[in-house]
Amino acid sequence: MTLQENLFGGPPATHLPDRPEPQAALEGGTEPSKVVTEWPDFSEGWAALAELALTENNPVAAYAYARTGYHRGLDQLRRAGWKGHGPVPWSHRPNRGFLRALAALSKAAHGIGETEEYERCKQFLADSDPDAPAQLGLA
């Protein structure tokens, strides 16, 4: 038995591929806008933009950035074999961009009064990984 084995027969955990170049750029201090200009499909860059907009009390911009990162992440999850449900573990570093975008989308939705979207995204995050909401300030 491996740590990722699902004993309940549900779908296996989805692990996105590593993205060393954009990850290194973002972690090295490159502005998120420059990261997404070079790698527009990099969810974590969009998540970083959304989180920055949230800290600047700009939930409308945060919503747009987070929605972009979320959709880019969904595309990548599907390419990785995800069928619309199942675990997307926070512990797998490349998954964090999608999960951060999803959390930012939930927070931004809350900020613009989109209660149903806030709840849906928050639940999607918990369904993806029960540890993710606490990691991302939505516990």
Written as H for each helix and E for each strand, in order along the chain, the element string is HHHHHHH
Distance between the termini: 30 Å
The whole-number mean of residue pLDDT values reads 94
Coarse morphology: globular
Helix content: 55-70%
The largest sheet is: none
Please explain how this structure is put together.
By secondary structure, the protein is an all-alpha fold. It is 60% helix and 0% strand. It contains seven helices and no strands. It is globular and about 45 Å long. The model has no long low-confidence stretch (mean pLDDT 94).
Give a quick set of tags describing it.
139 residues, single chain, mainly alpha
Question: What order do the helices and strands come in, and which of them pair?
Answer:
Layout: H1 20-27, H2 32-38, H3 43-55, H4 59-79, H5 96-111, H6 115-128, H7 132-135
Helix pairs in contact: 2-3, 3-4, 3-5, 4-5, 5-6
What's this entry about, in short?
This protein is mainly α.
